Each structure stands twice: as C-alpha cells, then as structure tokens.
TrEMBL record:
Biochemical pathway: Porphyrin-containing compound metabolism; protoporphyrin-IX biosynthesis; 5-aminolevulinate from glycine: step 1/1
Chain ranges of the Aminotransferase class I/classII large domain: 108-469
The organism of origin for this protein: Naumovozyma dairenensis (strain ATCC 10597 / BCRC 20456 / CBS 421 / NBRC 0211 / NRRL Y-12639)
Pfam short name (any one): Aminotran_1_2
Protein name: 5-aminolevulinate synthase
Taxonomy of the source species: Eukaryota, Fungi, Dikarya, Ascomycota, Saccharomycotina
Keywords, ordered alphabetically: Acyltransferase, Heme biosynthesis, Mitochondrion, Pyridoxal phosphate, Transferase
Names of required cofactors: pyridoxal 5'-phosphate
Cellular location(s): Mitochondrion matrix
Length: 537
C-alpha cells in the first residue's frame, strides 16, 4: 500500500515557493521507493542504503559474535597465570576490631591486612556523628553537587581537608581512584603540549588517568630514581608545561618518595607536582597530613593548623590527593590545592560533575575522623610501635620482609601459588587473615603477603601472628632471608650491600604526647571555603 502523502494546499502564501512544494513530494516519493526496495531486498537476503546501493544483510547470513567464548577465554587466562582473584568473606566487627567473622558469626578471625590503618571506622565519636547525621539528613545526598547534592556537610569536610593540608581549597570525590583519574585526565586535556613524568610504581588510578590524558607525552621513570627523572626533565625546555606524578608511600612495597628533592626538580625545570598521599594521610606528620607534612614535622607541630612562616614542603606541592577510606575510616577521595585549581577541577572534571554526592552521614563521619586523628598523635605513634614490633619479630625469625621506612610490612613469597597457600593456611589453621598479593598488583616473581598493623594490634596479638607465620613458612618450606641471599637477593631482601632505610618516625617524635600539640588542633570547626560553592566575581 502506498503511504499517505498530505498534499499541499493550492492557495500559497507569498513565502511559499513552488520549489518547496515540489521538494516535499520528491522526498515523500523517494521514501516510498526506498521502503519498497528495502522490502524486496530483505526477501532476497540483501538490503539497501539510503542512496539505494544494495548491501549484504549480515543478520540473515552470519552467526552472532561469540561473547561468552571471549569471556571464558579471558577468565581462563586469569586462572592459568595465577592472577584470578578469590574474595574472602570478611565482616569486621566494630566492637571487637581487629576481629571479624566469616560467613558464620561464630567463625572469627583476626584481620591483619586492613587499610583501616587507625581503626577509625570503629571509633565511637565517628559512629555517633554518623548516626546523628543519618537521623537528621537521611541516607543519601539526593543529587550531584550541582543539583540538590551540595550541602553544609560537603563544605565542612572540604574545609577540614584544606586545613589539614594547608591548602586554599579541597574537592571531595566518590573515591580517590576517581579523583586521580579525573584530575590527571583534565590536566592532560586542557594543558596544551603537557608532558607527564610518572613513577613506575604509581597506583593504577594514576596510570589510567595519565592514559586518559590524551594527547600528552608521557615518560615513566624508575621507581624513586630521581637521577633518571632529571635526565628526562632535561630533554624539554623550561617553557614546556610539565607534571611530575608520584606517591608518598607506595602501598605494596612500603617505599617512600623523597618529596623535597622532587619539589626541587619541579621548581628547577618548571613542573607542576601531583602527589598521592592515600597511604600516608592519618599516619605521618604531627596532624596526619601525610609524608609532606612529616618532612617539616617540628615546624608544623608548633603552629598547629596554621600555616608555617616559611614555605614548607607541603606548601610546595601543587596538588595532593588522598582518601577518606583508609586512615579516616569511611569512603571517598579528594584533592587539595590552590583555590584556582580547585575551582577549575570543580568546573570541568566529569568525574566530579556527573556523579551523586557522598551520603551526608559519610561526610560527617569523615570530618569527625579527621578532627579526631588530628588531635590524637598517640594513634600514629601506637601504629608505628606495633609495626616496629612485628618487623623486628619477623626479622629474628628470618622471615623476608621487603625493607622500607613506612608502616607497610610486605613479606616476600615470590610465587603466586605459594602466596595463596600461605594465606589460606593462616586463615584456616590459625584464624588469621592476611591477603596474598599477586600479579597484576605486583610484578610476577615478587608475590607477597601484606601486613598492616593498627593501634589495636598489640604485642599479644603480634606474638600469635609471628608464631603462625613461622609455622606456615615451615609447612610450605618457603624461602627465608638466608635462601634469598644465596639467590642474590630481591627487592632489598638478601641483597649484598643493601642499606636498610631509616624509619620516617624518629624516637623523639614517638616520645611526644597529645599535650605537645598546638591547642588550635583541638578546635572542632574550621571556616567554610568559598571555592566549595563557587567563587563570586
């Protein structure tokens, strides 16, 4: 049947031309012809394009793509290379931490690998603050920051974070993965001819952000090798825009960057600096601002939350990212920087703009955790003492711990199957949970167990852990320090002439008390920042 075509009225206005009427009929007739041709072609197993050229109808002649086959093959590869991940059912108990139960509530284990470094997720002040906020404001934020999701809790949290890092502003994201990706991507997209220099052990979130930062030039320098970094920097004029992206504490090895020297290089060659303090906030510095604060420990301790009279290392870093999901016991990520940079990120970063704001209770809990840890130096000190106790105990047993100056305790296994077996035996036989870390989180041949003591892991629990690990090494005949020495060593374990790094915390710093902090750190409220809502012209 010929489709109905509405005819033009014979009476034309002055603005209607004969051509326009003809064109309407032409288009309608062409559409009719095309439809008829398509129907005929379909019956013959072909179809036509808009210009009447016949094309093959693949829907009738080919089998569909084997999606399941591709997925099966990808998962098979994961199992074959021993990188397939098994998740343990771990339910951490707020009133009994570091204990958790597995599937059955009476099946309890001691957690030794959590990133809740200060156990603030169970802190009663934090929990009470979250409960009150939940009752008052409900479960969700109700929208993005631009649409109904911007509130006083976001402003208070961003003010706390900016104050912690002594920056003009801060911006909260749904996670630090998103923060790193969004900020690095934006920098690469907007700064023409930007060159990014990235440490080879940077976190996946930074690597992905740099990959998304097209079309920038990228250079990867050897881990903490500042001589190689400088040689790379020398390849470009000072006028070329450049960015150095690095971490303070590298989570899987516990190694620490020389932030001050990197800032020296950045200023010498005209670079921006992007520092990820995810595994350092809460743990270093007199107020828990991270390693950048710890470098000038005494100066920051004396002035408290106020700025130092001189330009500190923390001041010299352009952008600092961190998380609310580790030492601060909740969830979320952030970037702290100048108000101009924060306003730029706020206005352009899709990872910030197009996502729902964190729940009010989460933001209130995070702000409370930041304030609490800022004024409780003893939390950081206890965590450091417990870490030192475990490291010394493992060393006496000849257990190969990758040497580092931080709170991370990585036990070198060097084999994915054995690392998984060691983790399983600790869980099933000793009721101790320590996660095996395999590729791609670490490179093949460097598989390990990663232990992270908290203030709650006292000497009694540590002795149980030490005996259990010794038993597992005996049962699986795992290589100890002397075995690695025979093989020439690896990652500082058993390497001839390797100089063990000095702990970041000095004995004098560990001997301080909360009363030695400036009284202003106990102030519960800091002034809200204009940049959180938008700067008025």
């Amino acid at each position: 049947m010929r489709p109905f075509i509405q005819k033009s009225t014979p009476t034309l206005s002055k603005r209607t031309s004969t051509f326009s009427i003809t064109k309407k009929y032409t288009y309608a007739n062409a559409a009719t012809a095309t439809a008829a041709a398509a129907a005929s072609a379909t019956a013959a197993g072909t179809t036509t394009s808009t210009n009447n050229a016949p094309i093959v109808n693949h829907a009738t002649q080919e089998t569909p793509f084997d999606y399941n086959g591709l997925i099966d093959n990808e998962l098979r590869k994961k199992r074959l290379d021993k990188s397939y991940r098994y998740f343990n059912n771990i339910n951490r108990l707020a009133k009994e931490f570091p204990l958790a139960h597995r599937q059955m509530e009476n099946d309890k284990v001691t957690v030794w690998c959590s990133n809740d470094y200060l156990a603030l997720s169970k802190n009663q002040q934090v929990i009470n603050k979250m409960k009150l906020t939940l009752d008052k404001y409900g479960a969700g934020a109700g929208g993005t920051r631009n649409i109904a999701g911007h509130n006083k809790l976001t402003m208070e949290l961003e003010a706390e974070l900016a104050t912690l890092h002594k920056k003009e502003g801060a911006l909260v994201f749904s996670s630090c993965f998103v923060a790193n990706d969004a900020v690095l991507t934006l920098l690469g997209e907007k700064i023409k001819d930007l060159v990014i220099f990235s440490d080879e052990l940077n976190h996946a979130s930074m690597i992905i952000g740099i990959k998304h930062a097209k079309p920038v030039m990228k250079h990867i320098f050897k881990h903490n090798d500042l001589d190689e970094l400088e040689r790379m920097l020398q390849m470009y004029p000072k006028s070329t825009p450049k960015l150095i992206a690095f971490e303070s504490v590298y989570s899987m090895a516990g190694s620490v960057a020389d932030i001050e020297k990197i800032c020296d290089l950045a200023e010498k060659y005209g670079c921006l600096t992007f520092l990820d303090e995810v595994h350092a906030v809460g743990l270093y510095g007199p107020h828990g601002a991270g390693v950048a604060e710890h470098v000038d420990f005494e100066s920051h301790r004396q002035v408290g939350i106020k700025s130092t009279e001189f330009k500190s290392v923390m001041d010299r870093v352009d952008m600092i990212t961190g998380t609310l999901g580790k030492s601060f016991g909740t969830v979320g990520g952030y970037v702290a920087a100048s108000s101009k940079l924060i306003d730029w990120f706020r206005s352009y970063a899709p990872g910030f703009i197009f996502t729902t704001t964190l729940p009010p209770a989460v933001m209130a809990g995070a702000a409370e955790a930041i304030r609490f840890q800022r004024s409780h130096l003893n939390l950081r000190q206890d965590q450091q003492r417990n870490t030192a106790y475990v490291k010394n105990g493992l060393k006496q047993l000849g257990i190969p711990v990758i040497p580092n100056p931080s709170h991370i305790v990585p036990i070198l296994i060097g084999n994915p199957d054995l690392a998984k077996q060691a983790s399983d035996i600790l869980m099933e036989k000793h009721k101790i949970y320590v996660q095996a870390i395999n590729f791609p989180t670490v490179s093949r041949g460097t598989e390990r167990l990663r232990i992270t003591p908290t203030p709650g892991h006292d000497n009694e629990l540590s002795d149980i852990l030490l005996n259990a690990i010794d038993d597992v090494f005996n049962e699986l005949q795992l290589p100890r320090i002397r075995d690695w020495e025979i093989q020439g060593g690896l990652l500082g374990v058993g390497e001839p002439g390797f100089k063990e790094p000095v702990n970041l915390w000095t004995q004098d710093q560990l001997n301080l008390t909360n009363e030695d902090l400036n009284p202003n750190v106990f102030n519960p409220v800091v002034e809200q920042l204009e940049v959180s809502s938008g700067i008025k012209e």
